[in-house]
Amino acid sequence: MSASRFCSLVLLGALALPHVAAASDHRLELGGSYQRVEPSANDLDDFDVWSVRGTYYFAPVRNAAYPLAEAAFMERASRVSASFSRADPGDDEADLSQISAGFYFDRLLLLASLSYFDNAWGNETDWSAGVGYAPIDGSLISVEYSDADDGNWHLRGKWVYTGWGAQALNLTAHADFMEHYDQYGLGADFYFNRAISVGGAVYYRDYDSGPSDTIHEVRARKFLTPALGGGVSYRTMDSQDAWSIDAVLRF
Fold it and tell me: How many domains does the chain have?
């Protein structure tokens, strides 16, 4: 599928669905996703990535006042999460399991995670810890350290502007300092209303050895009801293209 055709489907699909029903609170969120990865190299086959995840919030998350996709972020909701992903590039099946937690103390956020990676060549257990702060409502600045490889640092910034009534704007920025490359990214999502958003992101990846790479992403999300939503995305870079779909269910 070409990038231009996929982008058109993303926009039309998001806008064509019916408007969201009345809001309700939730404490549990379950989700799943499917991704198709298409490497550019001729000697590499396309492969699939499947993921499932769950998040429990320690207090009910109100949906009434915010874009539905941003409700937990806007509420500064403390949570615990678990996820499992499986990739099958040829005969080299790989699994990733992770548990994570985020605890807010007013505007201060403490983060921690533990992950286990397993494939045909072995396995590895990694941990991460971080801290964040919300200087104004709807914002977060965070720094996180992971012991993967020889140690990685992650800087994040996010701001959701809700001053347009039913419409909103989500802006994100990040910098990742990894063992073999550094990556910098900017993203934005425009909410036409509380249920529908269309956005994109651009990432610049600077490898320690070899040429740099620029990654482009376009995405859309739609909530059919406050309890049921889904999204689509398309990402392209020099080495591969990938498209994905996901769904989320809230209780």
Answer: 1
